[in-house]
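2024-03-11 09:14:02 INFO receiving multi-entity request
2024-03-11 09:14:02 INFO entity count = two
2024-03-11 09:14:03 INFO echoing inputs for audit
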Amino acid sequence: TQLLEQSPQFLSIQEGENLTVYCNSSSVFSSLQWYRQEPGEGPVLLVTVVTGGEVKKLKRLTFQFGDARKDSSLHITAAQPGDTGLYLCAGEMKTSYDKVIFGPGTSLSVIP
Amino acid sequence: NAGVTQTPKFRILKIGQSMTLQCTQDMNHNYMYWYRQDPGMGLKLIYYSVGAGITDKGEVPNGYNVSRSTTEDFPLRLELAAPSQTSVYFCASSYPLGRDYEQYFGPGTRLTVT
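2024-03-11 09:21:47 INFO inference complete, emitting structure
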């Protein structure tokens, strides 16, 4: 079972469209991160959100952390082919040791 | 800075063979990690290390071993390769978890066991 769920699993859209992808869990996280992974490469960090309700913007990308710190969303405005990739969310949990759990990812394809 | 480097990029193993995946980082990070990535399953933590001489198991450690003799290097050893170990393996490094935490990933090793 996945501690972190992401939806949709796959998304194919036309250039210029808007989209939102979601990251959900029943667990509370100390922080949540979004990574983007391009084919044949490792993930690269986009943003970290820490406070419940926090919103961060990175150019055309808007990230929100849920009030209860159990979920997050990533909204892309006017998607471009360069946005194509696998978007992974990762939650930090404070248990017997600090650990980070990755979701399964949303694979985004932006068609020119 | 080269960041995190991994070798080899690709490898095909026969069942029962052994190999070591190499990982080196030049950012003086204390924390290092090994993940495997299977389609639709995200990244699963195999082993991690919080410093030289200290290693611990992650979510899926069976069939793997690690060592951390230096800050820079964190090799992953497969002793008796099995088809279930076919995957893409990523090494990562970071400073300790905290407000500015970020994992830096290597380019990955694609392993096929047949």
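2024-03-11 09:21:48 INFO post-check: Chain A touches chain B at residues 2, 4, 9, 31, 33, 40-45, 48, 50, 88, 90, 92, 97-100, 102-105 (CB under 8 Å).
2024-03-11 09:21:48 INFO post-check: The first strand of chain A starts at residue 5 and ends at 7.
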